[in-house]
Specification:
The chain has 71 residues and is an all-alpha fold. 92% of the residues lie in helices and 0% in strands. The chain crosses the membrane at residues 6-27, 47-70.
Length: 71
């Protein structure tokens, strides 16, 4: 079960890193200027990536929890 815990930790950290990337991209999109529609399009792409990052983190945390319970 240790492998499940380690895999969960890797997934969780990867998801958190992706969340930080999303935050930086959103800040960059807002600072870049442009019209409101251009900013909205950029932020919509970031939102999709943000949801993927949250799902990866949730799966990783679930794996850690299950691995801890079964250990």
């Amino acid at each position: 079960m240790e492998m499940l815990i380690y895999a969960g930790v890797v997934l969780t950290l990867g998801g958190v890193a992706l969340l930080v990337y999303c935050i930086l991209q959103a800040a960059k999109a807002r600072k870049s200027g442009g019209t409101e529609d251009e900013i909205r399009v950029r932020l919509q792409k970031v939102i999709a990536l943000n949801l993927v990052a949250l799902m990866i983190s949730a799966i990783g945390l679930g794996a850690v929890t299950i691995g801890s319970i079964l250990s």
